[in-house]
Amino acid sequence: MSADLARHPVRIEGMDRRRFVTAAVAAPFALAAAPRALSRSLGGVALALVTADLEAGVVAVELSTGRIHRRIETPPNPSSIETVGQRGALVAHVPGGQLTLVDERLRAHEIAGRLAEPRYAAVSPGRRYAYVTDSGWGEVAVVDLLERAVVRRVAVGGSPRHLSLAPSGRRLWAVLGNVSPEIAVLAIDRPARPRVLARVRPPFAAHDVGFEPGGDRVWVTGGASRRLAVYAEPSRRLLRTLSSDAPPQHVTFLGGRAYVASGDDAVLRLHSVRDGRVTHSTAVPLGSYNVQEGWGVVLSPSLTQGTLTVLSRSGSLRFRRRVARSSHDACFVLIP
Prior knowledge:
With about 325 residues, the chain is mainly beta. The strands form seven sheets. A four-stranded antiparallel sheet has the order 3-2-1-28. The relative contact order is 0.14. The N terminus is likely disordered.
């Protein structure tokens, strides 16, 4: 292993690393209980962690009340955040090339191994590894979450950003730019050693990509065009293209629906995954580009307004709270 990948242990006091990575799998994500009921059933507090991009921190918001639970200090410029085993989160800091791990006590810890421009992460089903796109070096980095270190880098080309991992953990699709003509498909036969398997060229420049919960279909958003595409996996066959009223940015899934955020027209659209038709539209603040689901609700932070919008699975508003000057991304965690 090269010197820049050498592991420099960062101790998390009073905490078992293995328990952090594998904890809280007693209740499946498919559970549609309200956050308050889920918190009671698991003996913890259900939170949304929201990046405060301009304030060097992450804001923890209680999903049952909308109250700000705590503000967590991090290195500057936290941008994306991804849940790790329900008990923590991985944060990417683009300008500084850093990754930090937020533990179940809401403390931030450094991941060893510098990247150029870490963008987004996907976590393996076993919660041992995370795959992080590095748009500066055109790579997907493999992070060992147990050791808290970058342990491998895989060249994929372009400037990779958004990615999605199949529920099985065997395939990963990574879009090679903010608006890219190409998507890299990685095979993950061995979780620590992904390899480029194929490339997909959608009928428009792609922005985001997302696996449906069943894992046999992948949605691709246009970003700069008013179109979406749905592919079969593992054949990578184009099944259909869909039109949109505004360029779609990000996509997530819950209860037989795809939730597609555009951000520029302040509308979140719900599509049926069966036939792609729009079944509902909900007004959200301008700049609500990202969208994430979990525990029967959907999160949409606003990059320009600094708000967190929480929606039910039907698309109705649960609450909206301004948490920072700018909020790029959000995820779910459960703390003791």
